[in-house]
Inverse folding.
């Protein structure tokens, strides 16, 4: 499967806390933001650098700085919002788009209701953000939307994934890399990840 598990000890520790049914809304939000920042650190490891000359208080020197690559992140509403601040804190200049999808409870298929992206989609590398990669239908639909708008380089950042969801993305979009904190056992009959962490949106926003 084309999915990289980011197994940094801090991420795995915080993920265990997030999974716990006794973790409240405030703690859940804070942990999710922290994990998102740590994951973004790993996902952006291949950003290009260029040499620049600067002057320290002691002497002039040549240092490395980002080469100006344009980045964009796109949280999938609503749960993706919980991971957005962590990435923005790490990369303050990143542009943020939004894709709104909900899952039809009968068919489990995504229904688009909102899309707002930066005007220069074709010039940016994008990271799609959604805590849960369950069936994979919503993430695949979001990748479709980005590609139709002109995006050429897309990565996906998810907290927890199912093997079924990863396989669907691999089949539909083999050019898209997936980064996760964990690949869980399976999906249940209702399309939820097992053992997972429940409904991420409800736990982020305290709606259940």
């Amino acid at each position: 499967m084309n999915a990289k598990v980011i197994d940094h000890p801090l991420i795995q520790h915080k993920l265990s806390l997030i999974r716990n049914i006794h973790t409240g809304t405030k703690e859940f939000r804070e942990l999710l933001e922290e994990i998102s920042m740590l994951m973004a650190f790993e996902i952006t490891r291949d950003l290009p650098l260029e040499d620049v000359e600067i002057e320290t208080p002691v002497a002039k020197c040549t240092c490395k700085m980002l080469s100006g690559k344009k980045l964009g992140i796109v949280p999938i509403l609503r749960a993706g919002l919980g991971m957005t601040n962590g990435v923005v804190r790490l990369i303050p200049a990143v542009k943020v788009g939004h894709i709104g999808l909900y899952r039809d409870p009968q068919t489990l298929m995504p229904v688009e209701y909102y899309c707002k992206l930066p005007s220069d989609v074709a010039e940016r590398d994008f990271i799609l953000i959604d805590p849960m990669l369950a069936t994979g239908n919503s993430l695949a639909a979001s990748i479709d939307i980005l590609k139709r708008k002109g995006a050429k380089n897309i990565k996906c950042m998810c907290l927890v994934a199912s093997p079924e969801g990863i396989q669907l993305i691999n089949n539909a979009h083999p050019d898209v890399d997936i980064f996760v904190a964990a690949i869980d056992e399976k999906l249940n009959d209702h399309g939820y990840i097992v053992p997972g962490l429940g409904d991420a949106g409800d736990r982020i926003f305290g709606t259940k």
